């Protein structure tokens, strides 16, 4: 190419950059052209459909995290449900720098499922770097008032109770497995529901007797109008506004080995709104994300929006999650065999 042509093209490029900057619509584009920065967005791959707590926490992060990241990038949510959110986890695990900057959030019930059956799930959660956890899945099992189920004793007395479930490894399936195997509750699981919203609709239509899910996802009017009864809870804490008389499942177990198995299976309920990236992401990007996340969860506007959305905030920092997940992989083999047998049913 001749020198006059080169000079002409450089003048055109400079004019375009100046024009973009003057009109004020794309200063970041001009910066990218001059500095070579290829990405100004983070994609968040959400493993569940809209309407549940996992999606709700992701939308909170989408709204509040950008202002705590260098350059205030755009955060773009992409719901990618499938196989109990395994599809989203695989998407993040297999991402490359050419795919852009990508985070993921998923059903944490996949963690014990994957640890106990690596051949089936083909994912190792130690491959990820965790950015942080923002919530707790305060899970309960609740039933339409017409069923007459008020507690575990009522549930145990029934010949069959119909509940909804999604894919193997999802939180609802784990809760059902605990009821069936540790408490000998007779359940009929109707599988195939894509998420919490679909199961609530089925319950309203009378297709289901009840469901196991996050207490924050039960419509407030259902509780206020006694349309449903909460029979059991799965965590020892009792959040504000929750009836302290609801039975805590672990207290009803008499054998030490059953309690240890229960603890392994329930641990992921502490991890809802968990965000991670592939271990291919550079360390400086991980540090930026963790720093931004830690600042975001202390922000007053973030906390106010979470309260309005009925999403409890229980923070676990990224480095702590890395250690906790790694520790789960050191669980004794005998306990893992029992957990695998329970989860594979």
Question: What would your notes on this structure say?
Answer:
The protein has helices spanning 3-23, 27-35, 53-64, 86-93, 110-116, 118-121, 152-156, 171-182, 196-204, 220-224, 256-266, 283-296, 300-308, 318-328, 333-343, and strands at 41-46, 74-79, 101-105, 128-135, 139-144, 161-164, 187-190, 210-214, 228-233, 247-248, 272-278, 313-317. The longest helix has 21 residues, at 3-23. Helix content is 43%, strand content 19%. The chain is globular. It has three domains: 3-35; 41-137 and 271-343, Bordetella uptake gene, domain 1 (D-Maltodextrin-Binding Protein, domain 2, 3-Layer(aba) Sandwich), CATH 3.40.190.150; 139-267, Periplasmic binding protein-like II (D-Maltodextrin-Binding Protein, domain 2), CATH 3.40.190.10. Helix 11 crosses helix 15 (333-343). By secondary structure, the chain is an alpha/beta fold. Mean pLDDT is 85; it is low at 1-38. Strands 8-5-9-10 form a four-stranded mixed sheet, with helices on both faces.
């Amino acid at each position: 190419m001749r020198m006059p042509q080169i000079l002409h093209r450089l003048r055109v490029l400079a004019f375009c950059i100046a024009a973009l900057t003057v009109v004020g619509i794309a200063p970041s584009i001009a910066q990218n052209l001059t500095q070579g920065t290829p990405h100004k967005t983070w994609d968040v791959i959400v493993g569940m459909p809209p309407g549940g707590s996992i999606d709700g926490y992701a939308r909170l992060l989408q709204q509040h995290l950008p202002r705590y990241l260098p350059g205030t990038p755009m955060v773009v949510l992409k719901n990618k449900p499938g196989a109990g959110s395994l599809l989203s986890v695989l998407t993040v695990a297999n991402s490359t720098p050419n795919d852009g900057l990508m985070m993921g959030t998923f059903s944490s019930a996949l963690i014990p499922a994957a640890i106990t059956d690596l051949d089936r799930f083909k994912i190792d959660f130690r491959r990820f770097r965790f950015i942080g956890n923002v919530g707790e899945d305060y899970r309960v099992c609740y039933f339409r008032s017409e069923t007459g189920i008020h507690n575990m004793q009522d549930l145990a007395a029934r010949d069959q109770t119909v509940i909804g479930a999604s894919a193997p490894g999802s939180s609802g399936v784990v809760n059902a497995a605990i009821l069936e195997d540790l408490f000998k509750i007779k359940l009929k699981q109707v599988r195939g529901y894509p998420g919490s919203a679909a199961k609530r609709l089925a319950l309203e239509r009378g297709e289901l007797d009840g469901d196991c899910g996050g207490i924050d996802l039960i419509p407030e009017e259902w509780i206020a109008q006694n349309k449903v009864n909460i029979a059991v809870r799965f965590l020892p804490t009792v959040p504000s506004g929750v009836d302290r008389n609801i039975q805590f499942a672990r207290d009803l177990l008499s054998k030490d080995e059953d309690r240890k198995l229960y603890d392994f299976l329930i641990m992921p309920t502490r991890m809802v709104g968990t965000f991670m990236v592939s271990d291919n992401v550079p360390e400086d990007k991980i540090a930026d994300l963790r720093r931004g996340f830690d600042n975001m969860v202390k922000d007053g506007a973030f906390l106010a929006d979470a309260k309005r959305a009925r999403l409890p905030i229980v923070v676990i920092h990224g480095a702590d999650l890395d250690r906790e997940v790694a520790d789960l992989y050191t669980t004794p083999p005998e306990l893992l065999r029992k957990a695998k047998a329970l989860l594979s049913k």
